[in-house]
Design brief:
elongated, single chain, mainly alpha, 171 residues
Length: 171
């Protein structure tokens, strides 16, 4: 049986990760497109400096909690939880080798001396961001499925012994 704390952690951390990435994709990214480039790059650099340790910690906790859920689950829920963990790891890989190198470039950019292909670089950053956001959202949906499946299965097993036997069986 899964403890409530394992289920709670497995729901909390991937949910926060998906929410943070989703908020960035829906709100921050589109706000970046509306402001002058110097404002965008200044804010982007400041945001990434703060986001770095927070998001890395959150990704680590999401991986650990989904792995723990997989280890403590049985059958179908184990595979669903392991898949969620793999997707969280994928979001980390995309971040580490996709977004982070571009963030390092953006930190060095000056608005009056942008690289000729800066719009293409920003498009790649956005593509990486949508990819990691999608991975995190699907991982969260899988965790929900695994947790609901484990509580439903546990509830069904508990119900089996709680009903009185039919009249024929009692005789």
């Amino acid at each position: 049986m899964l403890s409530k704390s394992v289920r709670a952690a497995a729901l909390l951390f991937p949910g926060l990760l998906a929410g943070a990435f989703g908020y960035g994709a829906v709100n921050v990214l589109y706000a970046f497109r509306e402001v002058p480039l110097d404002v965008r790059f200044t804010f982007h650099t400041a945001l990434m400096r703060v986001n770095g340790p927070v998001m890395q910690s959150l990704m680590g906790l999401a991986v650990l909690s989904t792995l723990l859920l997989a280890v403590r689950s049985a059958h179908r829920q184990r595979w669903i939880s392991a898949s969620a963990s793999a997707l969280v790891i994928a979001s980390f890989v995309v971040t580490r080798w996709g977004n982070v190198p571009i963030n390092q470039q953006i930190k060095r950019w000056r608005v009056d001396a942008l690289p000729a292909d800066y719009t293409e670089i920003l498009r790649h950053w956005e593509l990486f961001h949508f990819t990691r956001t999608g991975c995190a959202l699907v991982a969260f949906a899988l965790v929900i499925t695994a947790v609901i499946g484990s509580t439903t299965a546990h509830g069904a097993r508990a119900d089996v012994g709680s009903h009185p036997a039919p009249e024929k069986e009692r005789r």
